[in-house]
């Protein structure tokens, strides 16, 4: 299966640096809507069989233009949502942002017993995200679009692919509507074909002034 792991479009929280992981979550900013509208054109050469989104509203809104253009339903899938911030929910200080991302990346490095303050550990995160990908895999063996979240995509990619490690995931940004393309299977493993950290609709859709902890480089 070929996974197009697409981060959702910009939300107000992404502009303000808020750790915002609760359901149903915010909608998109005006820029976020433009980012979403640019996705179908950017993926025009991809033979997409299915479109899967998380239980958070921002992924569903991001996938809407692509779903309409392809005539495909958006499949809301348990397990694809953002890493829960726990006690850090709603906070925006640099220290809290770094703590959140460091915990997530520690899971990708194999430290699965580390717990997000008041939230999940790595076993819980990888368990539910793996289950979501396995469910998609049971239905498709071609190319699918999975619209998910910055920390979730970066952490899962670093922990589950053979050629991207946690250092790469931490050093490389994944802006809103950035994309990671991985090929393989849960049984045989995954290889990253592409990591495009800028919006797939073009660099003109990148908000360089935003305080976006789950998408920014930690290098």
Automatic annotation (TrEMBL):
Pfam families named among the record's database cross-references: His_Phos_1 (PF00300)
GO MF annotation list: phosphatase activity
Gene Ontology CC: one annotated term: cytoplasm
Tree of life domain: Bacteria
Protein name: Probable phosphoglycerate mutase
């Amino acid at each position: 299966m070929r996974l197009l792991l697409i981060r959702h479009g910009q939300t107000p929280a992404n502009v303000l640096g808020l750790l915002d992981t609760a359901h149903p979550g915010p909608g998109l900013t005006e820029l976020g809507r433009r980012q979403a509208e640019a996705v179908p054109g950017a993926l025009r050469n991809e033979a997409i069989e299915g479109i899967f989104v998380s239980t958070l509203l921002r992924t569903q809104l991001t996938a809407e233009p692509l779903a309409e253009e392809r005539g495909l339903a958006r499949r809301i899938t348990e397990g694809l949502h953002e890493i829960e911030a726990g006690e850090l929910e709603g906070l925006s200080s640099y220290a809290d942002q770094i703590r959140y991302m460091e915990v997530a990346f520690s899971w990708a490095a194999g430290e699965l017993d580390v717990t997000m303050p008041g939230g999940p550990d790595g076993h819980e995160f990888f368990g539910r995200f793996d289950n979501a990908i396995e469910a998609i895999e049971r239905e498709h063996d071609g190319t699918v679009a999975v619209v998910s979240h910055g920390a979730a995509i970066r952490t899962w990619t670093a922990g589950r692919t053979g050629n991207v490690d946690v250092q790469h995931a931490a050093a490389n940004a994944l802006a809103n509507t950035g994309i990671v393309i991985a090929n393989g299977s849960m049984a045989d493993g995954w290889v990253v074909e592409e990591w495009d950290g800028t919006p797939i609709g073009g660099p003109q859709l990148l908000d360089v002034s935003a305080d976006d902890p789950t998408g920014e480089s930690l290098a």
